[in-house]
């Protein structure tokens, strides 16, 4: 069982920031990544639609023998996690809970900001997760729709990115949050800029890094960690032509992306 | 037959700029609009996937008795039009051809710029359509991924939009194109800004307006125009929860959006 892979999925390329952290924390583990590039983005879709997509992808990965599933997509974590946990017998880790827990740990004032896609913010998933851990926390949120295309363009440090960050973050900054959760897997690419705009008094919480930490803890507790040996293998599947995923993905993984295979979930269903 | 509706579809809300032009040009006509909001955007998807989606939507609209189909989506027009024309017995109008024809008519220097989503630009559909009409034309293209979220945020006239337009349009401007095709249905919302950045020597071609003109011409030729009488009725269908479509759509239609119904194309298929 310990020799099985860690399964990770996202609506597209963003979850690679989570994979990158898992590769760093657990270099001996094999991973299977699924990017649902034919149906990206999830942020604009209904909870019902996203839950259905998540179940299809989980079924695809389970057939390929995974020992743990990481929902490396904030929208899917926000809406599909309870259903996935009911349906699957392996541990399922989302990106909301680890980020929320870390935010509650590091805040001194109890005033926490959360940024994400329109879908994640509308779902209030971070607010609920934070309030469950600390009912007295004050949570301020802001959707930042331009951050994803900025990260994908590689415009992470120009004046357009800076003005956009200033516009989106103004109210959170004026409200004097002391902690800011990056509630979208694309945002670690804009981390330096966001930190600079928020100023030195604000601690950024990177959900990707926190999620990798949670995965390591769960696998250790369940004695499912591979013995440290050589580096693991990494497989990549997408639901649409890989070209765009490969181009942007290499930016996310620092050029280390392996072969990417296109699969059709429909055919998958038909064949089984 | 003349009393049937005009069917229009897009991957989402952008095609409403085409609908708006059709409502202005042909106020007596009934229209059926389909926005594939569960699967938006098409620009990042493969030609095969987009062609399959377009066929599903065409089938949905045909069942509701349309006399002409407008593919009000540049990506779908670029990749799915030949297949739709083969499959359907009613006229099918895309947004590429009308914009290309107009560009060839208005250019004096023969140097034409085209802007659009990554998918539309990668497809080279405008370049091919323009070259078919004038093989000597020089066509310069540029993908502008941030323009769609800017239009949807309503950031059509702030400094972020201006700097983004300057960045995207710099090379086209330096290359001295005298005509610029707005090859994405969202871009008419940024028309004033784009005109300002390009300067007075450049004629903008609005594909939405040109498409409406083509629809009017075809219906007149085929004697399928409704006799001018009272204003037509307008129905709206989307494949995901309507909330986001309604909010952004009202910005596109100047607050005139009617009731929006959510439908599932899958169930549609199952029921028939």
Polypeptide structure, described:
In chain A, 47% of the residues lie in helices and 18% in strands. With 272 residues, chain A is an alpha/beta fold. Chain A folds into 2 domains: 5-94 and 210-270, Rossmann fold, CATH 3.40.50.1860; 97-207, Rossmann fold. In chain A, the strands form 2 sheets. Chain A has a 6-stranded parallel beta sheet, with helices on both faces. A 4-stranded parallel beta sheet of chain A has the order 6-5-7-8, sandwiched between helices. The first copy, chain A, is globular, with a radius of gyration of 18 Å. Chains A and B meet through helix 7 and helix 8 of A and helix 7 and helix 8 of B.
Domain tally of chain A = 2
Low-confidence stretches of chain A: 268-272
**Helix and strand run of chain A:** EHEHEHEHEHHEHHEHEHEHEH
Largest sheet of chain A: 6 strands, parallel
Neighbour order of strands in the largest sheet of chain A: 4-3-1-2-9-10
Structural class of chain A: alpha/beta
CATH architecture of the largest domain in chain A: 3-Layer(aba) Sandwich
**Large-scale geometry of chain A:** globular
Helix content of chain A: 40-55%
Head-to-tail CA distance between termini of chain A: 24 Å
Oligomer state of the chains in this structure: homodimer
Number of helices of chain A: 12
CA-atom Rg of chain A in angstroms: 18 Å
Strand share of the residues of chain A?
A: 15-25%
Largest interface: A-B, 25 and 25 residues
What is the CATH class name of the largest domain in chain A? Alpha Beta
Indicate the mean pLDDT of chain A: 93
How many individual β-strands of chain A? 10
Reported by name, the CATH topology of the largest domain in chain A is Rossmann fold
């Amino acid at each position: 069982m310990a020799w099985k892979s860690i399964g990770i999925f996202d609506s597209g390329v963003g979850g690679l920031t989570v994979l990158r952290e898992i590769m760093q924390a657990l270099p001996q583990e094999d991973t299977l990544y699924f990017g649902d590039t034919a149906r990206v983005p999830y942020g604009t879709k209904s909870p019902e639609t996203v839950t259905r997509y998540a179940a299809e992808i989980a079924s695809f990965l389970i057939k390929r023998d995974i020992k743990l599933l990481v929902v490396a997509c904030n929208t899917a974590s926000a809406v599909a996690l309870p259903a996935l946990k009911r349906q699957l017998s392996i541990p399922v880790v989302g990106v909301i809970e680890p980020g929320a827990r870390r935010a509650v740990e590091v805040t001194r004032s109890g005033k926490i900001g959360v940024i994400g896609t329109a879908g994640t913010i509308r779902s209030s998933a971070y607010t609920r997760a934070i309030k469950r851990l600390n009912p007295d926390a004050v949570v301020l949120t802001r959707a930042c729709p331009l951050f994803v295309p900025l990260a994908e363009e590689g415009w992470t440090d120009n004046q357009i990115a800076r003005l956009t960050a200033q516009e989106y973050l103004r109210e959170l900054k004026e409200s004097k949050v002391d902690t800011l959760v990056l509630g979208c897997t694309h945002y670690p690419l804009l981390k330096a800029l966001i930190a600079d705009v928020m100023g030195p008094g604000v601690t950024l919480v990177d959900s990707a890094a926190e999620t990798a930490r949670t995965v390591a803890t769960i696998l250790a507790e369940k004695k499912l960690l591979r013995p440290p040996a050589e580096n693991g293998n990494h497989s990549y599947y997408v639901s649409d032509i890989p070209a765009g995923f490969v181009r942007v993905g290499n930016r996310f993984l620092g050029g280390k992306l392996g072969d990417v295979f296109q699969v059709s979930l429909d055919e998958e269903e038909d064949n089984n």
